[in-house]
Design a protein that fits this description.
Helix content: over 70%
Largest sheet: none
Strand content: under 5%
Distance between the termini: 25 Å
Order of helices and strands: HHHH
Shape: elongated
Bound molecules: protoporphyrin IX containing FE
Radius of gyration: 18 Å
Amino acid sequence: MPRLSQWFIRAAFIYLLLGFTIGALLLTHKGLPLHPALWSWLPTHIEFLLFGWVVQVTMGMAFWILPRYWQKPRRPKEGYTQIAFILLNLGIWLVVAGTTFRAGQWFLLAGRATEVSAVVLFALHARKRIVSREGA
Ligand code: HEM
């Protein structure tokens, strides 16, 4: 498995663990009130499990399994995927700061814009690797 896929997948499992833990606390809180501030962690629960787990593990697996054509002109720009990894994780924490930690609307918007840029950069990388056996 390529090193970059290991980064994505390891990070995704950390978010899965954190997201499930918050989810379990929220579920417990519904039956046995723990602390009223717990509900402010619902956006983080959703962010960790949708972007931190689902999107990130998908990127990690796609980077590993998509056809590998390293010959020019189809040589995919691996750098795009490295930047996408950084942007995706930066975006997740900007959204968490803007929601659970109430840092403000601009953090939330910046986080969403950063996450979208990560997906676009990954798509630009993957686009060159999505080829059929006929090479088209
Ligand atoms: C990949 C797995 C998961 C995803 C993508 C996910 C996503 C979500 C989403 C989108 C919501 C908001 C639903 C709404 O507003 O109607 C939510 C709420 C919630 N989730 Fe999860 N979740 C996941 C796993 C879990 C797990 C494992 C637990 C508990 C152990 C959990 C506990 C909760 C609770 C307690 C709520 C609040 C429900 C309420 O509003 O009453 N979630 N989750």
